[in-house]
Specification:
The complex is a heterodimer of chains A (about 600) and B (about 375).
Chain A (H helix, E strand, L loop, with lengths): L8 E8 L5 H11 L17 H6 L6 E8 L5 E8 L7 H9 L3 E7 L6 H12 L3 E7 L8 H12 L7 E2 L8 H11 L12 E10 L3 E10 L2 E2 L3 E4 L4 E11 L3 E3 L2 E2 L4 E6 L12 E4 L18 E7 L5 H14 L4 E7 L3 E8 L2 H14 L4 E3 L3 E2 L1 E5 L4 E4 L11 E16 L3 H10 L3 E8 L2 E9 H4 L3 H8 L5 E11 L2 E8 L2 E2 L5 E4 H18 L7 E7 L2 E8 L15 H16 L1 E4 L2 E4 H7 L5
Parallel strand pairs in A: 1-3, 1-4, 4-5, 5-6
Antiparallel strand pairs in A: 2-3, 7-8, 7-15, 8-14, 9-13, 10-11, 10-15, 11-12, 11-14, 16-18, 16-19, 16-20, 17-18, 21-22, 21-23, 23-25, 23-26, 24-25, 27-28, 27-29, 27-30, 30-31, 32-33
Chain B lengths: L9 E7 L22 H18 L5 E8 L7 H14 L2 E11 L3 H4 L2 H7 L3 E7 L3 H6 L6 H14 L2 E8 L6 H15 L2 E6 L7 H7 L8 H17 L4 E3 L2 E3 L6 H7 L3 E5 L4 E6 L2 E7 L3 H11 L3 E6 L2 H12 L8 H8 L5 H9 L3 E3 L5 E3 L7 H9 L1
Parallel strand pairs in B: 1-2, 1-9, 2-3, 3-4, 4-5, 5-6
Antiparallel strand pairs in B: 6-8, 7-8, 10-11, 11-12, 13-14
Chain lengths: ~600, ~375
């Protein structure tokens, strides 16, 4: 491949809310520039994992290099960078954006701007991007392009007069988008003769190639056979292969400034490659690392235990495999009196937690029990030491604690006016502090500071349900604040169930405890004896419910000598018992753990 | 007499799969045919199947025979006689053999009682089901209470032993009304009563109604109260429960059903019949084809109507022993459980269940379900078997 003049390169990403058509637009761009034949096009090429396809979210950054002959007669290289589209992956998003000079802002012409769009577009603006607004789905009867243009101008403060009306589904307006990428987005800048400086955008594990690193060259040239150094870790690796995605992997001899591609080499694990790190020529290092590099920090923790204790080793192996490809997920062994052997896992956020859990269950065929999600609490002890608490079960003696601090977030919620009252109430109930309230046409934009520990329990589910799915939500972690937090234990038949204990705010303990007991009462099937369920802070019982004893469970008649049918029923009962966890004399269905943590109050 | 578990006896079950009409609660293998049934052809097929089982399990002494259904009282007495003859040709029959036949208490069928007696039947079990016409109608029965009592009277005059069935926990039934009805029944029943709680079985008409919310049966609390009343009234009147749904005066238990519950050997003959025979392969669970005409064709072609024969694992045998044996007041013998299953009962579970008042351990080593445990028998068995 010959050297590409830097002014004929455009690197861009697409900013959009889920369902606003990001992937469909990407597909059209790929199709129209002939990167794939029609036959090779499978719907939404870029989202390759099942879960990504189902949920319409992207977890890993991906890229595709398009060749576009523009109206000016020159052929341009367009690198489309598909970024993860969720707040849990905000840091990964910021690094992908740093690899581009511009963004297409895709807004559904009937739905308008959503909270997630806002967060991502601000990130793109912060990254210094030129933004081209694109109105998608203008062919739908409900489309209101003028209203949405106004909204883009009012809410985001972007000039939307040149917004491009398209329908990614029918292909309408796609040529205009391609032309706008060339004419309205700036080319990258870089010095071909300077020492190599490249951004590590993302990396993943490929069964054949090992670790594949997605890079954006800033200065210098990356060549095959080079020895590179990762500035964050000082690790040195040989480069075996360099290439680009079209979207299939195609080898190239070198990548120059402004170009986006991949490298493979002697890198063993994805964990060795930190997103945002700077790649150097080991023999000719550059002076400064690229700005913005941060090591990943898990934010939400929970315990994952196999339903069948015999699956423990399988779970360990599965986690190892997932971590090969996702270094932001961490795990360490944990034992629970109630649940046996399992792992304490750290995640970037709730979605990340759900995705990992789902992948473990789906791709590795494991049945899991997850414990209450927890955030990281900072404990200042009386003896002057500090502790980071990831697991309420590890809570030290309260007498030794001077103060507990918890993480707070700033949340942005966009909701139709009709649901504003309920949304405000939800935020207030979750100890929220209102920061701002604005109107965008008929929609309210609320900004709240909230303790993250109130959000990790079903806040998002509740928000969706009270707004009939219309409210959108985004957040970022802002600070740690002291809080009057207490450890609430749940006792079933007088025995504490460690997996259900949690840190809660004192003011919320009673209602949370009551809700938990009520829920467990519904979820624990009647036994042969009465089961008290209690919530307690220390030795003080704050809520209590009772599961009545079983009153009647009998098969009255037995047909002839048909013992087989009864035996099959018994086998089912036994199978059901296997899916239960034994707590003292009480069997709790695993669903109870998951459901108990989804509060509806 | 030998100890009951040492020799639970050998029973032959004969299934007559036809009914004049299908009752809305019934999920048994019963079929309504509008053309007359070729009984001679069935007799021949029954004889063939009897020969087949006798070859598998020869030299047993038959201690009980039970004609179930369906409605066996639709058979001609000669048909019953011919089947009994076939059994007698292949196995020795105990001098005190119990031969039961299920009958509908209609006046038409009662006319055949004398014929059944002559053929060898010595015990009838009458499907009375309720003692008032409104409930009989609701249960889809084709007889009135008066007609049923007439049939009971005829049975009493012809047979040494008879029993009848009642179904309780009917829609809107109160414990008080049931107690009154039950007392009236006991006065007529003399020695044996089968009292079944109405259960809504999948595939029945009642199930459809129930699903649609058009049939409401007593909830667990009322069901429990009705069960408790049943035990109290029967015990006070000399018919204590010897099995969860069966009540008898001393010595009047149904010996055939005890074969099942004591997990003995039994041959199942006819469409949809179940059997348990111990052969060189082990204990076999056997099941025949359900549809009468298909069963006939199978028997005529292959010499038997079996569609499923399973060599029971030790675990399965242990489970079946618990499932059947714990229905009985006399309970189970843990040593026999160990011999069948190769396992011992978990002592901690036994201790817990005793502590919760669900089971009792007896001086002779047997374990039985307590009066408090019977209403929740399924849960108790599942606990012990887990």
């Amino acid at each position: 491949m010959s050297e590409q003049p830097i002014d004929t390169i455009r690197n861009f990403s697409i900013v959009a809310h889920i369902d606003h058509g990001k992937s469909t637009l990407a597909d059209r761009l790929i199709q129209m520039t002939g990167a794939l034949t029609d036959r090779e096009m499978s719907e939404q090429v870029l989202d390759s994992m099942d879960i990504e396809r189902e949920r319409g979210i992207t977890i890993k950054a991906q890229t595709v290099r398009l060749e576009y002959p523009a109206k000016d007669g020159k052929t341009y290289i367009l690198n489309l960078m598909d970024t993860p589209g969720h707040v849990d992956f905000a840091y990964e998003v910021s690094r992908s954006l740093a690899a581009c000079e511009g963004s297409l802002l895709v807004v559904d012409a009937s739905q308008g701007v959503e909270a997630q769009t806002l967060a991502n577009v601000y990130q793109a603006i912060d990254a210094g991007h030129e933004i081209v607004p694109v109105l998608n789905k203008v062919d739908l009867p409900a489309a209101e392009p003028d209203r949405v243009k106004e909204q883009i101008e009012e809410v985001i403060g972007l000039d939307a007069s040149n917004a491009i009306p398209i329908s990614a589904k029918t292909g309408l307006g796609i040529p205009d988008v391609l032309e706008a990428i060339v004419t309205r987005l700036p080319p990258p800048r870089g010095d071909r003769d300077a020492p190599l400086k490249a951004l590590l955008v993302d990396s993943w594990y490929d069964a054949y190639l090992g670790v594949v690193v997605l890079v954006r060259i800033v200065d210098g040239v990356l060549k095959k056979g080079m020895t590179i150094k990762l500035m964050g870790t000082n690790a040195i690796h040989g480069v075996d292969k360099i290439g680009v995605f079209r979207p299939k992997m195609v080898d190239v001899a070198e990548l120059g400034p402004g170009e986006v591609g991949f490298l493979t080499g002697s890198i063993k694990e994805v964990a060795d490659t930190a997103v945002g790190d700077t790649i150097n020529d080991a023999k000719r290092p550059c002076a400064e690392a690229l700005p913005g590099f941060k090591p990943v920090q898990p934010v939400v923790f929970c315990g994952l235990f196999p339903v069948d204790a015999a699956d423990f080793e399988n779970l360990r192996a599965a986690m190892g495999k997932l971590r090969l490809n996702d270094a932001s997920f961490s795990y360490e062994m944990e034992t629970s009196a109630a649940l046996g052997f399992g792992f304490r896992c750290g995640f970037l956020g709730l979605l990340h937690l759900e995705i990992i859990q789902e992948r473990l269950e789906r791709e590795f065929n494991l049945d899991l029990i997850s414990t209450a999600p927890s955030v990281i609490y900072k404990l200042r002890m009386r003896d002057g030491t500090a502790i980071e608490l990831h697991n309420p079960a590890d809570m030290p003696d309260v007498m030794k604690i001077e103060e507990i601090e918890e993480p707070w977030i700033r949340a942005t919620i966009l909701t139709p006016d009709d649901y504003l009252g309920s949304v405000l109430k939800l935020c207030q109930d979750r100890r929220g502090e209102q920061v701002d309230l604005n109107y965008v046409g008929k929609r309210a934009m609320v900004t709240y500071d909230l303790p993250l520990n109130e959000v990790v329990f079903d806040f998002y589910d509740r928000l969706k349900s009270i707004s009939k799915g219309y409210a959108s939500f985004d957040y970022q972690i802002t600070e740690y604040r002291p809080g009057d937090l207490v450890k609430m234990s749940i006792l079933v038949n007088a025995e504490p169930v460690d997996a259900l204990s949690m840190l809660v705010h004192r003011a919320r303990a009673e209602s949370r405890g009551r809700a938990m007991c009520e829920k467990l009462k519904e979820l624990i099937p009647p036994h042969l004896f009465v089961i008290p369920i209690q919530a307690a802070i220390g030795g003080k019982i704050i809520a209590r419910e009772t599961v009545r004893a079983l009153r009647k469970d009998v098969t009255a008649k037995c047909y002839g000598g048909d013992a087989t049918r009864k035996r099959k029923l018994l086998d089912k009962q036994k199978e059901g018992k296997k899916r239960m966890r034994q707590f003292g004399k009480v069997e709790i269905p695993q669903e109870a753990f998951i459901a108990a943590l989804k509060m509806d109050s | 007499m030998m100890h009951p578990t040492a020799d639970a006896g050998f029973g032959v079950y004969v299934h007559w799969p036809f009914c004049a009409s299908k009752c809305p609660y019934c999920d048994f293998n019963s079929h309504v045919r509008h053309a007359p049934v070729d009984e001679a052809r069935f007799v021949a097929a029954f004889a063939t199947e009897i020969a087949h089982r006798a070859e598998l399990a020869p030299k047993r002494t038959v201690t009980s025979i039970f004609f179930g259904g369906g409605t066996p009282s639709l058979m001609q007495p000669a048909t019953v006689g011919a089947i009994l003859d076939a059994i007698g040709r292949h196995w020795p029959v105990d001098a005190h053999v119990e031969i039961s036949l299920e009958a509908n208490p209609t006046s038409v069928e009662a006319e055949r009682f004398r014929g059944y007696r002559a053929a060898g039947v010595n015990r009838v079990s009458l499907g009375v089901q309720a003692m008032n016409d409104a409930d009989l109608k609701a249960l889809g029965r084709r007889h009135t209470a008066e007609e049923a009592m007439g049939a009971v009277g005829i049975a009493a005059s012809i047979f040494d032993r008879f029993s009848f069935d009642l179904i309780y926990a009917r829609p809107n039934q109160t414990p008080a009304a049931w107690a009154t009805e039950l007392k009236e029944a006991i006065a007529r029943a003399a020695e044996h009563l089968s009292l079944y709680q109405l259960t809504i079985e999948p595939g029945t008409w009642f199930h459809k109604l129930h699903q649609a919310g058009k049939l409401v049966v007593p909830d667990d609390e009322v069901g429990r109260a009705l069960y408790d009343v049943t035990q109290d009234v029967c015990a006070a009147r000399g018919l204590p429960a010897y099995e969860i749904s069966n009540h008898a005066a001393a010595g009047a238990q149904c010996r055939h059903n005890l074969v099942y519950w004591r997990y003995g050997e039994y041959a199942g003959i006819g469409p949809g019949a179940h059997g348990r025979l111990v052969t060189g392969q082990g204990r076999l669970a056997m099941e025949t084809e359900l549809v009468p005409e298909t069963w006939l064709a199978h028997v005529e072609k292959r010499g038997h109507g079996l569609v499923d024969v399973e060599v029971l694992s030790q675990e399965a045998q242990g489970d079946e022993y618990l499932l059947m044996g714990l229905r009985l007041k006399e309970g189970i013998d843990p040593m026999r459980y160990r011999a069948l299953s190769g396992r011992t009962l978990d002592p901690q579970r036994i201790t817990d269940l005793v502590e919760h008042g669900m089971i009792e351990c007896h001086a002779n080593g047997r374990i039985s379900v307590s009066p408090a445990g019977f209403p929740v028998l399924n849960a108790v068995v599942a606990d012990i078997a887990a």
